[in-house]
Design brief:
Layout: H1 3-16, H2 24-47, E1 64-69, H3 76-83, E2 101-107, E3 110-116, H4 131-139, E4 143-149, H5 153-156, H6 158-168, E5 171-173, E6 180-184, E7 190-194, H7 205-215, E8 221-225, H8 231-239, E9 243-252, H9 259-266, E10 271-273, H10 282-293, E11 295-300, E12 313-316, H11 324-331, H12 333-337, E13 339-345, E14 354-356, E15 366-372, H13 375-380, H14 384-414
Length: 415
């Protein structure tokens, strides 16, 4: 029996099984087996020697990346043309876009990379319609912009189908990683602890946890749950390859439906409505993209000089965070190594200027002056000798490599 047949058999058994306290352990075990088989199916698809299409190899650029996901002919290419300077082919028939087309959205002094991807269909997780390549790009995005046809959504459930396809390959939309610590050991068995009551894992959460860990051949580990988690959350932690991505749902073609239907779609969570052809609500959509990306513009200044307001340093709460430490990492590693303190002006400061450390959380349009340690302070630092030794080792290594290269060139001339 192949992997696909095993998956179908487990799904049929889960559909037949009633959901109650008595079957909670059995359903948890089936979910763990199903997640493991789906992971094996994806790995087999990547490593198989059969004919496959070329992957969408697009270099990351800009301050954030947005991936346009949706069914064919919902207006993704038209949207890319409307919000960027890139011209992607748009037509009234399906599968107009056959590869990944990047564009740049400039908004509030930031550059956001927008990727127009081919339309995906039901069964994309198994490779239908280049679905695997599209989903792989979605895993690398900071925000998934799911473009939906407002006219067809009520009958064809495109939103539910796309969520299911992304969920089946380990992409979690608008969710946070579960607060579960799984520390694997070499011996000692399974030690299970929880700091809050667990209401989603049956009458005996410890037994459910042991059954799930057994499916992944984890026999020695310490498990600590700090929130009311479900069986699916524990399975995600055991798999260890889940991607948590923010998602914004954009309902296009609202000029073809009634005002009552528009109001119903606009009230759905994480949703916005628009019409590219009629140029309705495009500016609101761009503002929503900015808010969901969590971008923060920071202006820097030198001592005794006005701040540089022409080119901000853009931080992201999704990537490295918005602390002073993240700012130093974006500028240079040497600034982080020699950091002494920072002077902050703006909304995050209690008074202006406020002297802050590396852990201070910055807000949009703050002005920051980073003060590094003096030469005397660097010599008194506890890591000074280690840094000097590292610099000396790097210099000797570079000098040795240059000497070996020179000897090789001389040897070639002698011959």
């Amino acid at each position: 029996m192949g992997v696909v047949e095993k998956i179908k058999e487990i799904e049929d058994e889960m559909a037949r099984t009633q959901k109650n306290k008595a079957t909670n352990y059995h359903l948890g075990t089936l979910k763990a087996k199903l997640a493991k088989l789906k992971s094996e199916l994806l790995i087999d698809g990547k490593s198989s020697g059969g004919p496959t299409g070329e992957a969408f190899d697009v270099a990351r650029a800009g301050d954030a990346r947005v991936a346009l996901i949706g069914f064919p002919s919902v207006g993704k290419s038209s949207l890319l043309n409307a919000i960027t300077e890139t011209k992607s082919e748009a037509a009234g028939y399906e599968f107009t876009t056959l590869t990944c087309i990047p564009g740049n959205l400039y908004h509030k002094g930031t550059r956001i990379q927008v990727l127009d991807l081919p339309g995906i269909i039901e069964g994309a997780a198994q490779g239908k319609g280049r679905g695997k390549e599209v989903i792989a790009v979605a895993r690398s995005a900071d925000l998934v912009l799911m473009v939906l046809d407002a006219q067809k959504e009520g009958l064809q459930r495109h939103r539910e189908i796309l969520e299911g396809e992304l969920e089946s390959v380990g992409i979690r939309l608008n969710k946070s990683p579960p607060d579960i610590t799984l520390d694997k050991k070499t011996s000692g068995g399974i030690k299970f602890n929880n700091t809050v009551p667990l209401t989603k894992m049956g009458p005996d959460p410890q037994k459910t946890c042991l059954n799930i860990l057994k499916q992944y051949k984890i026999n020695n580990a310490e498990v600590l749950m700090r929130e009311d988690c479900s069986v699916d959350d524990l399975i995600d932690v055991c798999m260890g390859n889940r991607k948590y991505v923010r998602c914004l749902y954009a309902y296009n073609k609202i000029d073809t439906i009634t005002i009552e239907e528009i109001d119903s779609l606009a009230r759905m969570p994480s949703s916005t409505v628009m019409s590219v052809m009629a140029d309705l609500n495009i500016d609101v959509l761009i503002d929503h993209i900015w808010d969901y990306l969590g971008l923060t513009r920071i202006y820097t200044k030198r001592r005794g000089q006005p701040p540089d307001l022409s080119e901000p340093v853009v931080l992201s709460s999704i990537r490295k965070g918005t602390t002073v430490k993240s700012l130093c990492q974006n500028v240079s590693q040497q600034m982080l190594r020699d950091f002494s303190f920072a002077m902050v002006w703006g909304l995050s400061a209690k008074h202006e200027p406020q002297r802050c450390g590396l852990s201070h959380e910055l807000q949009d349009e703050d002005v920051v002056q980073v003060v590094t340690m003096s030469a005397k302070e660097q010599r008194n630092d506890k890591n000074y000798q280690r840094q000097v030794q590292a610099f000396e080792d790097a210099y000797k290594k570079k000098k040795k490599a240059a000497k070996e290269l020179k000897q090789k060139k001389v040897g070639r001339l002698v011959r």
